[in-house]
Amino acid sequence: MGIAAAREGLLERLYWLIKLRWLAVLGAFCTVLFVNHGLKFKLPIFPLYATIALLFMGNVAFFFRLIRLKNKSALSMNRIANVQIAFDLLVLAVLIHFSGGIENPFIFYFIFHMIIASTLLSRKASFLQATLAAVFFFAMVNLEYLGILPHYCLKGFMIDCQRHNPIYLGGVSFVLVSTLYIAVYFATSIANRLKQREMALNISNEQLREKDNVKSEYVLRVSHDIKEDLAAIQGCLEPVARGITGELNPKQLDLIQRATRRTGSLLFFIKALLEITRMKLSREVKMDYFSFSETLSEAVAQIASKALDKNISLNLYLEPGINRIRGSKEYIQETLVNLLANSVKYTPRNGRIDLKGSDKGNRILIDISDNGIGIPKGELPKIFEEFYRASNAKEVERDGTGLGLSIAKRIVEIHNGKIWVDSQEGKGSVFHIELPK
Ligand code: ADP
After folding, report:
1. What 8-state DSSP symbol labels residue 121?
2. Atom 22 of ligand 1 has which residue's CA nearest to it?
3. Of 62, 120, 68, which Cα lies nearest the Cα of 87?
């Protein structure tokens, strides 16, 4: 788990590096433009733009290399990070060579590369990158000093050309190179400490998950046993309540009916608890393509009689593009039934429920709105928590598990979707579900 998370982190940072490079391309282009046209320095414009173009093309290549990378092992990603940073160092050295060499104050931009290397690579690899930067820098300074490469003086910025001034060359080189190594030392120290903390956090997360699993398994076993016994009790009570075992006097009938009702709601609660616990433990669901509009209609049909009992109008609006989606039909239908049942439960007689399915390209959006009791503003954030029931709901409806919405949330999340609610107390609620097709 720790290794996988570290690999994910590295991949994320490689994408981040590519994003940074787009900014670097833009920044370099604007700087050259400004220095050349704004400050009117005479720089070799063609090689500078060509180098920036090379940086741009290199970044395109890195981007495609990364998205097509099949073997996303830490080793191959490290190699990519090393190559990219080395490439950046070379490009920076070339840009600096064409824009004043050692006189160019941008030489200190090598430090940014050292910080980036320290966050991506090991300490050893980062020091090696610092050495590579030093090699590129020394090569440039020496080749210019010896006249093998031309030196482009920054006239107007420096009073005199410094190419033949060994004290200046030596002094700046020493300061720059020592700064590079010191920067790597500090940055890797901080990065290593952070990596260690991240690893410790991953380990404790894993331990917590394991503990949670043990707890869930325990709940699963207990609730399973309770369910069996409750079902047996219900099986005994029902024939008595129906008078099959002989006539009951009114007092006996009332008590037996109450016991049957209570057993029924307890059984309902235990089944919900079992379901959410099973979901927590398995996390995987069998997915297939199915007709979403059909599923919606079936969910509406399941709830229609309850709505009719309270004279609530139930209206369905469907856009044609939401027919085929991939997921668990059973679970999605259960979620829709759950939300619709809540709307019926928390909407007074003669109310209205609208169910709308919209096509959002590769996703679908379902809105279930009612003009019921709504949810108090302060309680909205807790509504998807297990066992949570809003204060106004408890007044209206004594029976309730507080598990329906948390089950719905889990189901939606297993499908990589989102569920949220807008509500105003006393006015009504709108539950939204967004699912990928
Ligand atoms: P319950 O068994 O209490 O309905 P749920 O998990 O399904 O449990 O819902 C949690 C709480 O969310 C409910 O107790 C209620 O406070 C609130 N709620 C859910 N749906 C609605 C709705 N349509 N209108 C108002 N409140 C709602």
Report:
1. S
2. 343
3. 62
Q: Residue 196 and residue 186: Cα distance in Å, rounded? A: 16
Choose one of 405, 412, 427 to mutate for the ligand 1 pocket test, by most ligand atoms within 8 angstroms of C-beta. 405
Token pair of 47 as six digits: 């090689």
Q: Of the ranges 118-127, 397-406, 426-435, which one carries the lowest mean pLDDT score?
A: 397-406
Give the E-state strand segments of 70-201 in sequence order.
none
Atom number in ligand 1 closest to CA 394: 14
φ, ψ at 429 (rounded to 5°): -135, 150
Ligand 1 site residues, Cβ closer than 6 angstroms: 342-343, 346, 370, 372-375, 383, 388-390, 393, 400-405, 429
Residues 6+ apart with CB under 8 A from 136: 89, 90, 92, 93
H-helix or E-strand containing 158? none
Report yes or no: 426 and 373 within 8 Å, Cβ to Cβ.
Answer: yes
As given in the structure block, the two tokens for residue 284 are 């995987």
- 3-state helix/strand/coil string of 163-181: CCCHHHHHHHHHHHHHHHH
Summary mean pLDDT of the chain: 91
Distance CA 301, CA 284 (A): 28
The pair of structure tokens assigned to 351 is 């109310």
**393 C-alpha to ligand 1 centroid (Å):** 7
Question: What does the pLDDT look like over 159-205, one tens digit per residue?
Answer: 677 777 889 899 999 999 999 999 999 999 999 999 899 899 999 99
**Among the residues of 147-291, which ranges form H helices?**
166-241, 250-282
Other Cβ atoms within 10 Å of 258 Cβ, number: 11
| Tens of pLDDT, residues 218-249 | 999 999 999 999 999 999 999 999 889 888 99
pLDDT tens per residue across span 369-415: 999 999 999 999 999 999 999 999 999 888 888 999 999 999 999 99
Task: Round to whole Å and give the CA distance between 320 and 292.
Answer: 10
Residue 86 CB contacts under 8 Å (≥ 6 apart), including other chains: 129, 132
Q: Quick one: CA dihedral 337, 339, 345, 347, positive or negative?
A: negative
- What would the two tokens of residue 92 be? 């920076």
Provide the token pair at 228. Answer: 């069996």
Q: Which helix (H) or strand (E) segment is 354 a member of? A: strand 352-360
Q: Tokens 């599923």 identify what position?
A: 295
Q: Please provide residue 389's backbone torsions phi and psi, each rounded to the nearest 5 degrees.
A: -130, 135
Dihedral of CA 70/71/73/74: which sign? negative
Closest CA to 114 of 175, 170, 182: 182
